[in-house]
Amino acid sequence: MSFWGKLGGAAGGYALGGPLGAIVGAFAGHYLLDQEESHHKPPASPEQDQRSLAFTIGVIALSAKMAKADGVVAPVEVEAFRKIFHIEPEDLAEVSHAFDVASRDLAGFDSYATQLADLFRDEPATLEDVLHGLAHIAAADGAIHEGEMAYLTEVATIFGLERSRLRRALGAYVRFPDNDPYEVLGAPADASDTELKRRHRELVAENHPDRALARGLPAEAVRIASSKLAAINAAWDAIRAERGLA
Where is pLDDT greater, at 94 or 138? Predict the structure, then answer.
């Protein structure tokens, strides 16, 4: 099934509205063409379709704005997005078109971030997934630059994410001078061993790849969840080594 097919419902009635909906409308014709060519797609849940669509279009819109801030949308950013969402070669032109539409749209990045924050207001883990995907794309050229770091921090603020979630999202790509495994877990350094073990278990459960699918995100979001889980486990391993825990 093509990339746009995986976004089932993009132009079929599950309107997002707002600035994200405007981007969907700009390239809805691509989806409609896929609809005509695919006659045996399994039925999808309208709610799941809309959530998958919002997540995917949100990452496109915010990453395009982030790339545009540096001048133009570079092929490396599209390639990074392709790796996250497993885009087939024949669909690259459509993905590139989506990036172009988002980068040229007059809406500011804050309007996209605000809409996503409203859509997933009760799911900070999903918003953290979006931020993690943006960090992956920002680091596609080898490093997250100062301007990109400021951008990601502002997006996290609009999302209402606490500092520990920002650290987890960026942890795989940024070496913080005050790197603190306790902050990655969102726990105080004087927490007891029992409290830390419980916190680690909670984060593993919240960020397990299966939970991403259960939240109605596209299957490709599993890649993001797996990366986040690695950062959480690395922080826990560092704490275990420091405390001599089994």
Answer: 138
- For all residues of the chain together, what is the average pLDDT? 77
Residue 38 CB partners (closer than 8 Å, separation 6+): 1, 2, 5
Please, which pLDDT band fits residue 47 given cuts at 50, 70 and 90? low
Is 133 within 8 Å of 59 (Cβ atoms)? Answer: yes
What is the C-alpha separation between 216 and 11, in angstroms, rounded? Answer: 18
Burial class of residue 33 in the structure, from the number of CB atoms within 10 Å of its CB (0-12 exposed, 13-18 middle, 19+ buried): middle
Count of H-run helices and E-run strands, the chain: 14, 0
- Asked if residues 95 and 87 have their Cβ atoms less than 8 Å apart, the reply is yes
The token duo for 59 is 């990452």
Residues in the chain: 246
Distance CA(164)–CA(223), nearest Å, equals 20
Greatest CA separation for the chain: 60
